[in-house]
Write a structure and sequence with these properties.
about 80 residues; about 80% helix
Length: about 80
């Protein structure tokens, strides 16, 4: 995960209202589809549980997959910009 993505995650952890707003946005919904495609969200659920226990490796892997997918890097960049406002 790059520095921008790490900062985004930290900002969202500290601001639940911002996270809710993001999740209801079109980009947030697209991100969720990208994170849950293929296994109906099982990998995301495991990654979240692991991250909550202080082991972010699985979450980093999922985010990296999104970043490498067609349009994924652009999506994360748009989300970063929206959060910065």
């Amino acid at each position: 995960m790059d520095d921008k993505t790490t900062r985004l995650v930290e900002q969202l952890k500290g601001n639940p209202a911002m996270l809710r707003s993001l999740m209801h946005s079109q980009d947030g919904q697209t991100l969720m589809r990208m994170l849950t495609q293929g296994d109906q969200g099982a990998a995301l659920q495991r990654a979240v549980q692991s991250a909550a226990m202080g082991k972010p490796d699985q979450m980093v892997k999922l985010v990296n997959q999104v970043m490498q997918s067609p349009g994924g890097a652009d999506l994360v960049e748009r989300i970063n910009k929206a959060v910065q406002k």
